[in-house]
Design goal:
The complex is a heterodimer of chains A (252) and B (261). Chain A has 252 residues and is α/β, with parallel strands linked by helices. Chain A contains 10 helices and 10 strands. Chain A has a 6-stranded mixed β-sheet, with helices on both faces. Chain A has a 4-stranded antiparallel β-sheet with strand order 2-1-4-5, with helices on one face. In chain A, helix 4 packs across helix 5, helix 4 runs parallel beside helix 6 and helix 6 packs parallel to helix 7. Chain B is flat and about 75 Å long. Bound molecules: adenosine-5'-triphosphate and magnesium ion (MG). Chain A: This is ABC-type polar-amino-acid transporter.
Chain lengths: 252, 261
């Protein structure tokens, strides 16, 4: 068992091989090879409709891959024998639209899955939840309901909710795209802190500043393929591909 | 004529018609006969207290049983209708279509008389019990459609958030989807409840013992006993006392929901 764990440490946190995904006859992912190493922060950028969300959602199988392999810490998540619910507790996910549970208080949002999926006691779940609310700067809002919070606060609660499962890695799908500009900074600040603590992160984003400063690697996708990837300063500062150049000239 | 003058004239005519009709009714109506036949104090006194301690009470009990039973069966049917297993969907769809298409009276009659004969079945609670089972079965068909719509109205992101946290499909349904679905369908469900209160009046066709009678059966019996319509008026008032707060509640919830969006 111990040897097993050691072996897994060498493996990438996420490894995607030749991943294809079709929606009907719409080929959205056309043979993606992609990985995120342990402790690495990978930012995925690209034009709208290029398949960034689809790739991210295939990692925890919210989307069913059409073909190819997705390994999470060495475990093939497309294998029917894999306990998907258990794997998912190790992969935190943050959505563009926050997706907090509107009928539950902030604290309950954070404890529900801990109790249901991790079988933690209420007391333990609440202790962990409070610690994570503190961490995202919302320690005083545990009794609020999501509708009473600003977008930025809701997204930070959503991050705290994902963290409360003690995941090994975090997936972010445009976490700041639905926010008013003045609220973006708080959320990016929390993500930056997570990165500094060594969290493995896959971040789909349009925030080029974040990608440059926090990302260890940037992956540029277009038309369902990875066009270019590498050091953020290289890819963003000196893109090699015409499509990357065209995209960056529009967003920078 | 100016448009504003025409509008004023038109309004004046409407008021005039109203006043004339009202006056005609007041003058023509035989108030004495109406009072002795519909608002007769002696007949009214005779109806009490049974109309409350038996009839109104039974109406409420029957409604509660039919509604709770209908909710449970309706929820099962709604989940079957959304099931990935096709035969479950077929069964649920057929059920809903059949029992929404049949008159409730016919179903109640069938369960009280036809089914017991055909299958040599002794319904629990006698014919009132058989009628109630029929009422549950019919209301479940309507409630199932309401609940299915509510479940589908919960945004997909809610289910995805719960699943991405590792919650299994059952917990996701119970802790995340259903609480929100029930909130969405509270106004239409309250409407179903009001309809059900009135539908308990159809139970008379099952034939009920004295102590089992609900408002309408009680009123019918009293009317023929006393040869006077006053019990009917009392029963009508009882129905309104029960249903008016509920319809007001629905209106309030709908206003509240509209503002929420
Ligand atoms: N559930 C779905 N059913 C059908 N088509 C879908 C579905 N989800 C995504 N698509 C299609 O897949 C393509 C890629 O979508 P995806 O959301 O992955 O793009 P994206 O890169 O995340 O874009 P954006 O920046 O707009 O979020 C689009 O053409 C989209 O219409
Ligand atoms: Mg997207």
């Amino acid at each position: 068992m111990a040897a097993d764990n050691l072996l897994q440490k060498d493996r990438p946190a996420i490894e995607v091989r030749n991943l294809c995904k079709n929606f009907g006859d719409n080929e959205v992912l056309k043979g993606i090879d992609f990985h995120v190493d342990q402790g690495e922060v990978v930012c995925v950028i690209g034009p709208s409709g290029s398949g960034k969300s689809t790739l991210l959602r295939c990692v925890n199988r919210l989307e069913e891959p059409t073909s190819g392999t997705v390994l999470v810490e060495g475990v093939d998540i497309t294998d029917p024998e894999t306990d998907l619910d258990k794997i998912r507790t190790r992969i935190g996910m943050v959505f563009q639209q926050f997706n907090l549970f509107p009928h539950l208080s902030v604290l309950r949002n954070l404890t529900l899955a801990q109790q249901r999926a991790k079988k933690r006691s209420k007391a333990e779940a609440e202790e962990i939840a409070r610690k994570n609310l503190e961490k995202v700067g919302l320690g005083n809002r545990e009794n609020a309901y999501p509708a009473q919070l600003s977008g930025g606060q809701q997204q930070r609660v959503a991050i705290a909710r994902a963290l409360s499962m003690n995941p090994d890695m975090m997936l972010f799908d445009e976490p700041t795209s639905a926010l008013d500009p003045e609220l973006v900074g708080d959320v990016l600040g929390v993500m930056r802190q997570l990165a500094d603590e060594g969290m493995t992160m896959m971040v789909v984003t349009h925030e080029m500043g974040f990608a440059r400063e926090v990302g260890d690697r940037v992956v540029f996708m277009d038309g369902g393929v990875v066009v270019e990837q590498g050091d953020p300063k290289e890819v963003l500062g000196n893109p090699q591909h015409a499509r990357t150049q065209a995209f960056l000239s529009k967003v920078l | 004529m100016k448009p504003s003058a025409r509008r004023r004239l038109f309004r004046g005519v409407l008021y005039a018609v109203f006043v004339i009709v009202l006056a005609a009714v007041i003058l023509v109506a035989d108030w004495e006969a109406i009072q002795t036949n519909f608002f007769n104090p002696q007949v009214a006194a005779a109806a009490f207290p049974d109309v409350i301690i038996t009839a109104a009470k039974n109406t409420i009990i029957y409604t509660a049983i039919a509604f709770v039973g209908g909710l449970i069966l309706g929820l099962i049917l709604a989940l079957m209708k959304l099931s990935p297993v096709a035969p479950y969907r077929w069964v649920a769809t057929a059920y809903v279509e059949i029992f929404r298409g049949l008159p409730a009276l016919l179903v109640i009659f069938g369960f009280a008389f036809a089914v017991p004969i055909a299958f040599d079945w002794r319904p629990p609670g006698g014919s009132a019990g058989a009628g109630l089972i029929a009422l549950i079965i019919v209301s479940a068909a309507y409630i199932a459609e309401t609940l299915r719509a509510g479940i589908e109205a919960v945004p997909a992101g809610q289910r995805e958030a719960a699943r991405s946290l590792g919650m299994n499909p059952s917990w996701t349904m119970v802790s995340v989807v259903l609480p929100q679905a029930f909130r969405i369908v509270t106004p239409p469900l309250t409407n179903e409840l009001v309809i059900l209160i009135k539908d308990t009046s159809l139970l008379f066709i099952a034939g009920m013992a004295l102590g089992e009678r609900e408002l309408t059966t009680f009123a019918r019996d009293s009317v023929s006993q006393m040869a006077n319509a006053t019990p009917l008026v009392i029963a009508a008032l009882m129905y309104l006392i029960i249903t008016l707060p509920l319809t007001q509640l629905v209106a309030k919830l709908e206003r509240h929901n509209k503002r929420g969006r």
